[in-house]
Design a protein that fits this description.
Radius of gyration: 16 Å
Mean pLDDT: 81
Largest sheet: none
Number of strands: 0
Distance between the termini: 18 Å
Shape: elongated
Structural class: mainly alpha
Oligomer: single chain
Number of helices: 4
Length: 110
């Protein structure tokens, strides 16, 4: 289990390495910014799960289509080379993940 966590952290570090060098981040800035990115996604997921209840009255499939649009727009925004746009894109992606956890719960097992 610890090996899987190490592999995940290594892959994440390799994925962000070119971005860190492009933005001229030192090691501490890169770690802080990586933490911010992950926290914004998690906060977006929590917010998405909270707002999914009230909007569920529009129908499950309609809400799933809207969440798919959020995923596509959020992923497209992360491709832009601007820190603020990147963070907003990750937040939209998080909101969609939270919405999917509400609208498609059959894939979540406890």
């Amino acid at each position: 289990r610890n090996y899987l966590i190490w592999v995940f952290n290594w892959v994440l570090e390799q994925a962000f390495k070119p971005y860190k060098y492009k933005q001229n981040w030192d090691k501490d800035d890169g770690t802080v910014n990586q933490t911010i990115i992950q926290s914004v996604t998690t906060a977006g997921s929590a917010f998405g799960a909270l707002i999914s209840g009230p909007i569920a009255s529009y129908g499950r499939w309609n809400c799933i289509v809207v969440m798919n649009v959020f995923v596509i727009v959020g992923c497209a925004m992360t491709l832009v080379d601007n820190w603020t746009v990147f963070i907003v894109g990750r937040c939209l992606y998080g909101i969609a993940c939270g919405g999917f956890s509400f609208f498609c719960p059959k894939y979540i097992y406890f």
